[in-house]
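Re: weekly structure request thread

Next one in the queue (452 aa):
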Amino acid sequence: MLRKEFRLKSFGGFIRNCFAVALLVLAFSSNSVGQEVLTIDSAIGLALQNNYDILLAKNDAEIAKLANTPGNAGMLPKISATLTDNFSLTNLNQKLSTGTETNKSNVTGNTINPSLNISWTLFDGLKMFATKGKLKRLQQISELNVKDTLQTMIAQVIEAYYDVVSAQQQLRSINEAIALFEETAKLAQKQFEVGMSSKVVLLQAKVDLNANKSAALTQRKLINQKKAILNLLLVRPADLDFTTLDTIEFNADPKLLAPNEIDAKNFQTQVAAKNIEVAKFVKKEAYSQMLPYLILGGATSNLGYGFARTENSAGFSLYNQTYGPSIGFTLGIPIFNGLVYLNQTKAASISILNSQYKFQKISMLNKLNYYNALKDFETAKEALKLEEDNIILAKENSFIAFERFRLVQSTAIELRQAQQSYVDAMTRLVTARFNAKTAETELLRIQGDLVK
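Done, posted below.
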């Protein structure tokens, strides 16, 4: 009875010591008063606001939007206003058939010619409509690229954020291991002093303790490096310190898509489908060059309003002024140009075929990636459940081994093996949580569910 009571007191003391170490760790981590508490939502918000890849993609989309206009497609008229003013100073020697002679020096002349010109393509083989359709698809592609960039960046931020959280949880596991080995070293010291164990046990306990302290130093350096990587994604100074939340959020039952739904949800396959449409419009543009065209106004005809006035101080005509509207059109029919337009149309047909091949390739690759991501997710979920169950067993086994060693009912080798198993179980549990979150994020990325 007395022996049982002594065991319970010792076990309780061990628990209190571990709890005290944990409080010290928490106190150390909470000393960073004034540090930014960075949540996953705020991290994603900063990336969406500051990340250069996102800003570049948005600017490209804005450029494509500005290009998608009827004017760029050639549907609107072109209007220009011109003004010419020619001034001359000449010497005039003139003899007319009537016998009249004129000899003057420094004769001035001034010709003013303002005009308003209009050129409007009324028909170009429907090329303008094909171009407008192409510009619209290019704008849609740029918008899809923005969403794909946003989704990729969100996935990277999620992984980098929880990589920091995982590293901090690993540090906490190492600190808990330090607490275990400190208790073991104290007990081995007492047993050595009373002659219950050899010095080898004490030395091994101190070696294990120092090894974990060294691991803690390395882990702190690793945490700072992982924070720097996250800061890079958020476009912040690498040395900007912050704290994160302590948990890794994991959805064990996300909404899944059927394989035949991937093409409609995945941004990359949507871009590939739009590229097929672009290639078809390019073929229409090439074919339209073989059809007649009708231009109101243009380079060889005129549509507009003209005004011309000429003044001379001497000569046959002292004053001349004309003004009024003019109208003309140009009708062209391509007959032969060395088969250039025909070859361009054939090349466009090949481009359509290539775009279809690329779509099929991307579609199959995305379905393969989705299949692998789904298997990774299922495996990671099962591994996490296994490690959550295993950590309970490993922790209890470590406590029992410690008590047996304290009562000299087991060897130091058995205790060290049990404690190391517990430390390894803590490490595997943290890794399993991070792997499960990473697998979930990749699954949602392929499904197109990170960006709505």
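The beta strands are 36-38, 78-95, 101-123, 242-244, 293-297, 304-312, 319-326, 329-332. The radius of gyration is 41 Å.
Next request, please.
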